[in-house]
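Worked problem 6 (solution included).
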Amino acid sequence: MKIIELTDIQFKNYAKIHSARNYMQTTEYASTMKNYSRLFVSLLIMLSFISMYQKGWMDHSYVALCGVAEHALMQLLNDAPHISQIALCLDHDKAGIQARERIKKNLSERGYHMVFSLFSNLKDWNEDLQELKKPPPEYMNRQQTVIQMM
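Solution. The predicted structure is:
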């Protein structure tokens, strides 16, 4: 799986520093993906999501933005023009909500109409994953009772 995570400066230099061979490999890989891509604010958040939803994870493409600018997504869409469905899996906070609306509008203007949002229960997918890793409250209560009895 090819993961694209670029800062603004890296993106601006992307076309300049990649050889034709690397570009062909990226394009070849992108052409084998299904028509569905998931967009995340960072690599950590993306990997948290994949950790929670592992079934069929390799059937889709994933883009980590390194912020809320959509340059990496636009590069993926250029490399894989067959992608028509895009899930915006951005943070569930003010910046994430604003970015979601802006990106959705930009994609709509480019002809992408199958754009939808997947929301985490907490601020982001990593916080959701951390919450899943915690023991249930009743287990914690029993553990504290045992410690108090000792």
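Discussion: The radius of gyration is 19 Å.
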